[in-house]
């Protein structure tokens, strides 16, 4: 009988939590939509994600077939954004470049989150020598300039998705570790942690099921900003010739190929540059909107 009552109360508590999470999500979305710049950022991010997911259905030409008689054509009904120095359709290559940029950014951010969040959580919750060891490791990572570390890894291991995940993701680990450590330090002194200990819950369960869910807000903000950073780093590496090799439709590679033709046909550089700028702007604006959502002075989580 007692077990049945416990199960019923547990299910009721779960339903209340789900309902509360849904209500908070709607309120958070309302805060973002009241901010015009954050709304613009959300729309740009959604459009970018849609383009990356359905890129094969959006493209209008073969992205790799060269057509030299049609090289450096301006925008037209046949080629919406014109053609590049090899006669390839720029619109098609930008669309496929969206998939490359988002895939690299997603892999790099997931790697940084998967390593940085547990390190920061363990450091802040355990304290003592554990905190010292983890923070010295984080400081060692910070000692390497991010771009130089990425260049060194790509040059040593070759340009592929895994290398770019590693090169960009390692650079993001210290940020997550520090942010999560600070949040855990503030959360572990609160009453609900002591109450969980009194009920006999293990320290790991308290950390990952009680404390970390209350540290989600700064992590989400950092994730949106890191997406923008990862896209910029991938484009920079491709521009320098350390990203995906030709004829990959990477935005940075498209800019690199267009350098010598900017006076003759400026559109070959303008449109890939706009794609990079708009995507980064969208993630940054969305990150600012999420800051407003999780600001305790404006929105109660």
Care to describe what's here?
The protein is mainly α and 301 residues long. It folds into two domains: 1-34; 36-294, MetI-like fold (Orthogonal Bundle). 74% of the residues lie in helices and 0% in strands. The chain contains twelve helices and no strands. It has helices at 2-34, 36-53, 55-58, 90-126, 128-143, 146-157, 161-187, 191-198, 203-211, 216-239, 251-258, 267-294. Helix 4 packs across helix 10 (216-239). It is elongated and about 75 Å long. Residues 1-14 have low confidence and may be disordered.
β-strand amount = under 5%
CATH top level class name of the largest domain = Mainly Alpha
CATH superfamily of the largest domain: MetI-like
**What would the CATH topology of the largest domain be?**
MetI-like fold
Give a count of the beta strands, DSSP E runs of length 2 or more.
0
Give a quick precis of the structure.
The chain has helices at 2-34, 36-53, 55-58, 90-126, 128-143, 146-157, 161-187, 191-198, 203-211, 216-239, 251-258, 267-294.
Task: Please specify the SSE layout and strand pairing.
Blueprint: H1 2-34, H2 36-53, H3 55-58, H4 90-126, H5 128-143, H6 146-157, H7 161-187, H8 191-198, H9 203-211, H10 216-239, H11 251-258, H12 267-294
Helix pairs in contact: 1-12, 2-4, 2-12, 4-5, 4-7, 4-10, 4-12, 5-7, 6-7, 7-10, 8-9, 10-11, 10-12, 11-12
What features would you highlight for this structure?
301 residues; mainly alpha; 2 domains; 12 helices
């Amino acid at each position: 009988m007692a077990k049945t009552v416990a199960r019923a109360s547990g299910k009721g508590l779960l339903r209340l939590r789900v309902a509360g999470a849904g209500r908070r999500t709607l309120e958070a979305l309302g805060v973002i939509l009241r901010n015009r710049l954050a709304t613009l950022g959300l729309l740009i991010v959604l459009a970018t994600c849609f383009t990356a997911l359905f890129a094969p259905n959006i493209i209008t030409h073969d992205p790799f077939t060269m057509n030299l008689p049609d090289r450096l054509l301006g925008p037209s009904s046949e080629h919406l954004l014109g053609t590049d120095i090899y006669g390839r359709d720029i619109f098609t290559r930008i669309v496929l470049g969206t998939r490359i940029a988002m895939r690299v950014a997603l892999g790099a951010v997931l790697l940084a989150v998967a390593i940085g969040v547990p390190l920061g959580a363990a450091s802040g919750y355990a304290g003592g020598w554990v905190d010292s060891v983890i923070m010295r490791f984080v400081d060692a990572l910070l000692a390497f300039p991010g771009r130089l570390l990425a260049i060194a890894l790509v040059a040593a291991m070759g340009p592929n998705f895994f290398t770019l995940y590693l090169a960009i993701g390692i650079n993001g680990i210290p940020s997550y570790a520090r942010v999560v450590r600070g949040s855990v330090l503030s959360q572990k002194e609160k009453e609900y942690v002591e109450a969980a200990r009194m009920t006999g819950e293990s320290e790991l369960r308290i950390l990952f099921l009680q404390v970390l869910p209350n540290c989600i807000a700064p992590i989400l903000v950092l994730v949106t900003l890191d997406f923008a950073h990862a896209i910029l780093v991938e484009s920079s590496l491709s521009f320098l010739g350390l990203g995906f090799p030709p004829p990959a439709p990477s935005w940075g590679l498209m800019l690199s190929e267009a350098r010598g033709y900017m006076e003759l046909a400026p559109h070959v550089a303008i449109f890939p540059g706009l794609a990079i700028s708009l995507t980064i702007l969208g993630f940054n604006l969305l990150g600012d909107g999420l800051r407003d959502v999780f600001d305790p002075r404006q929105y109660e989580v």
